[in-house]
Amino acid sequence: MADMVAAGMRATQVIVAATSNGAQFLRMSNTGTIEPNNSADFIVLDANPLDDMTNTRKISSVYLRGASVDRSSYK
Fold it and tell me: What are the residues facing 45 on neighbouring strands?
């Protein structure tokens, strides 16, 4: 994602490309956006990716289908 910004895309374009556009391309109609009846898969970041796209690596928490994922065994 940082490479996409370095190539000239705006941060907002990169985030849309990685989320809603990606889901749309893969024909995954219930994912990629935050709205009612969609799969609640998302991450919470410690810093704003609009300020610096590498902030997408600063993950605070992960949610899968609306439930918090215990990441301690993955570190």
Answer: 59
- Point out which residues pair with 42 in neighbouring strands: 63
How far, in Å, CA of 41 to CA of 35, rounded? 11
**8 A C-beta contact, residue 55 and residue 47:** yes
**Token output for 73:** 């065994």
Considering the entire predicted model, what is its pTM? Answer: 0.77
Placement of tokens 């439930």 in the chain: 67
C-beta separation of 21 from 4 below 8 A: no
pLDDT in tens, 6-58: 999 999 999 999 888 888 888 988 888 888 888 888 999 999 999 999 999 99
Domain ranges of the chain: 2-74
